[in-house]
Write a structure and sequence with these properties.
By secondary structure, the protein is of the alpha/beta class. The chain folds into 2 domains: 6-30 and 260-350, Aspartate Aminotransferase, domain 1 (Alpha-Beta Complex), CATH 3.90.1150.10; 37-256, Type I PLP-dependent aspartate aminotransferase-like (Major domain) (Aspartate Aminotransferase, domain 2, 3-Layer(aba) Sandwich). It is built from 14 helices and 13 strands. The strands form 3 sheets. The protein has a 7-stranded mixed β-sheet with strand order 2-8-7-6-5-3-4, sandwiched between helices. Strands 9-10-13-12 form a 4-stranded antiparallel β-sheet, with helices on one face. The protein has a two-stranded parallel ribbon with strand order 1-11. The structure holds pyridoxal-5'-phosphate.
């Protein structure tokens, strides 16, 4: 008998098939410059025929990663991008029709997975001034709630939580037995982390990715960190050998090459400083720079700018509709200064 999962019949997914070679792509929060070429060439010297023919081994990399986060290998489950980790957390810790609370707008896959697995995603909206009132989150944390999803910082809003706000949300979750998922995809761009909560408590999980600061989106590598008992449950969902050997090799070398991580952070900060000061000098309102992305209020029409950026300047950026009192605005990834210069030159030319 033919069967089709009811939940996916009307599920909308967007699969990006853009040919992007000639474009400067500032629409997916990647690092436009990528890792230094010399570092890539050195790393590739480790590739032998056996490296490719054998199934990837995770133990060695897990030890390095565990040391990096100040935990044990039993605290982490490595995944094929953090989007996979998020999916497993939703599968493991929520039920069909289960109540999931999350802020919107946010990373869209939380809602996609919720719909895919027949969960009930409750949206907590931002205020008109683009701040998040945690009382609006707290109101939704009913006894039936199974999962609260927070982002530190949020994509695309770029907001963060103070220690006091987070502690309050954490306590309510623990009291009401609500699993807490904290997405830290944009950690390093904003240094404060809640990972210690995941290392020291049950039912608190932090997901992180190697796609952003580590500049490895093409390799697909992420992880979820938490109490060993919870991590065991997440691990059960993994497909065998779900993370590839290239990804782990590159991540290992970034973590163990002295100065590598700092140099990526410094280049990013330089680009961000340049972008923000130039926007300020030119009278642009902007918001949300805790991650590697920023909202910019254009002086003319947002969609026109996005289209002209693509067609005339070969730069891809996104338009976000009705972003609080910013209205329709531009969302741009932040990267090294040279790419920010290219973007600013194009913006000043087009937005008049
Ligand atoms: C907030 C957030 N979480 C998770 C991801 C997924 O990243 P990846 O699957 O590349 O690790 C993204 C990607 O943009 C994101 O913005």
């Amino acid at each position: 008998m033919y069967y089709l999962d009811e939940n996916i019949k009307d599920l909308v997914r967007i699969f990006d098939q853009n040919e992007r070679k000639e474009y400067l792509r500032l629409d997916l929060n990647e690092n436009p410059g990528g890792l230094p070429k010399k570092f890539i060439d050195e790393t590739l010297k480790n590739i032998t025929p056996q490296f490719i023919s054998q199934y990837p081994e995770t133990l060695h990399f897990s030890k390095i990663l565990a040391e990096h986060i100040g935990g044990d290998i039993s605290n982490i489950c490595i995944t094929n991008g953090s989007a996979e980790a998020i999916r497993y957390v939703i599968q493991a810790f929520t039920s069909v029709n289960g109540r999931i609370v999350g802020v919107v707008p946010s990373y869209f896959m939380f809602q996609v997975y919720s719909e895919m697995y027949g969960r009930n995603f409750i949206q907590v909206p931002y205020n008109e001034d683009l701040t998040m009132d945690i009382n609006n989150i707290i109101k939704e944390l009913t006894d039936e709630t199974q999962l609260l999803i927070l982002l530190n910082p949020n994509n695309p809003m770029g907001n963060v939580y103070s220690d006091e706000e987070f502690e309050l949300l954490f306590k309510i979750c623990q009291d009401k037995q609500i699993t807490l998922l904290i997405d830290e995809a944009y950690h390093y761009f904003y240094p404060k982390t809640f990972i210690n909560y995941a290392l020291n408590n049950r039912r608190v999980l932090v997901t992180r990715t190697f796609s952003k600061l580590f500049s490895m989106a093409g390799c697909r590598l992420g992880y979820v960190c938490g109490n060993p008992e919870d991590i065991k449950y997440v691990q059960k969902f993994c497909t065998p050998h779900n993370t590839n050997a290239f990804a782990m090799l590159f991540a290992e070398r970034i973590l163990t090459t002295p100065g590598m991580l700092n140099s990526l952070i410094e280049k990013f900060y330089e680009g961000r400083k340049y972008l923000i000061s130039t926007l300020d000098e030119n009278g642009y309102r902007h918001k949300g720079e805790a991650g590697n992305f920023i909202f910019i209020e254009p002086k003319t029409n947002a969609q026109d700018i996005v289209d002209k950026m693509k067609n005339k300047k070969k730069i891809l950026i996104k338009k976000y509709q009705s972003v609080g009192d910013f209205g329709d605005c531009l969302r741009v990834s932040i990267g090294e200064k040279q790419y920010m210069q290219t973007f600013i030159d194009a913006l000043l030319d087009l937005d008049k």
